[in-house]
Input
Amino acid sequence: MGVIVAFDYDKLIAQFPAMAPVGPQLLEIYWDIATTMHGNDGSGPIAKESLQRSLLNMLTAHIAQLFAPKDPSGNPSAAGTTSIGVVGRVQSATEGSVSIATAALEGFNTAQASWLVQTQYGALYFAATAQFRTMRYQPPPYGIYGPYSTVVTPLRWRR
Output
């Protein structure tokens, strides 16, 4: 039912030009990480190759924004300094003796949502995948085939 797409640096950069300084080698590593969170094995609900690639690019950009080295301006790049970012909303901060307190992002009922909305790319991924996070009802078949009989009649509700 689903599709499989391969990493394509040019298409990722066309979608998110800000990721160009990260470079193809590091972005491919982040793509591999993204495929552990978003299935790319053909068994998922996404049947369009363009949508599958776009969603994986969003998740790859989110991971790169969080984990790639940063240039002096704080933008992701292939080389630079790595730092541990602040997770959550800044609740309070002081300047003398430097302290900061953060709080969990409010309004999201899952840890996954809170993790994704840390960057614009993750928030975009979260919004784009909303249609796939709903329950889908599959009605039962009209007959259930047993191993030793032809057809077993399913149970029906009586009034």
